[in-house]
């Protein structure tokens, strides 16, 4: 066995690297095509990591006597699907997620993840209140699983543009999945929503370099050779944890 | 929201139920058809739970200065596939798994899980040594992911019958996945291999009722309504753990 490639994190003192959109896409493509990971498998892993991060940032015990309500806002593509899986795991962790998923994907895999949530009696909202106070009062936090890596922040269409206007005004904490919605993947954002928590998946993106909130990385599954090929310099995950706070 | 169905484990003091093969198959069928879970998703969840159980039963620190070698023996069907996923996660937890997978499935999904292990440089043995001492010396433990729920213990074919003869003689601990190979799912076994650890998936099977070794249950993902429908009386999982020691 060749063990020279096995402990990338511990053998280097190089700093963690923040990757570009192109690199993130290349890694995902390599996972799918070379390593033959499946989208269903990866989305399950990512959504689970997001739910664990939320339990760390906002434990049930921190929510006092009120019901541990969480609004999970899901976009049309893969990021939204990660939100669905996150909601399902939050339900198993005894949170009370509610999903807002305005444009359902026609992709069969995404539909399967939707059915899993519906069958578990997780409520789906038919519209997002424009009266921000209603959101502040009804939920402890909002999960932003809207646009993610795929979207073009210069060309955010409806209903997402309007949703971002609403989310910029909410007073409850926002947790963003991988890339805060409306941010450019490759640049720090001064506009856009302002999450309190960011959950980077696989490796942090360039836009996260100046993020000052609570920052988690969920990427324990990533094969060592890919970590090395892209010089990710990932930190060592503690124990069997699927994520780490940076 | 209807919360009457949400905390099955905590609302009952009924004992954990050990389910039959027919019930286990009915639950799996319901997960796949009604809840639209995917096989890839379930196998990933199960294999991950197995790897976590192994880290709890045999932590790296318990293996002294020797390399933390684990022999993962994989059967031809779903149980073998769970073994492949378990091996992959063990690798990420810095164990050194070696896989013996004598009859590779022609199922594309199973092949994908195989490629993931190969690409991560996990070695595959081309044969199982019949000289038991070689196995005892080379590995700390053996993972039995051979026959599982699907197989008919009264009709174990080669190469598995021969492999079970070998595994009955090894002196290192055996960890069985879901159902110890060669056991009847519905009855306690007096013959067959004698695992030190059993990892039940979803719910424990009837054959596990008299098992006296270390017994883990990995089934945190199981929707509450299914738990209730089958009167499983599952214990409450601690924190966000995906498994519990019974």
Automatic annotation (TrEMBL), chains A, B:
InterPro entries: YjeF_N_dom, YjeF_N_dom_sf, YJEFN_prot_NAXE-like
Stretches that traverse the bilayer: none
Residues covered by the YjeF N-terminal domain: 24-234
Xref: SUPFAM superfamilies: YjeF N-terminal domain-like
Origin superkingdom: Eukaryota
Cellular component annotations (GO), alphabetically ordered: mitochondrion
Short name of any one Pfam family annotated for the protein: YjeF_N
GO molecular function term, any single one: NAD(P)HX epimerase activity
Name the record gives this protein: YjeF N-terminal domain containing 3
Organism field: Gadus morhua
Gene that produces this protein: YJEFN3
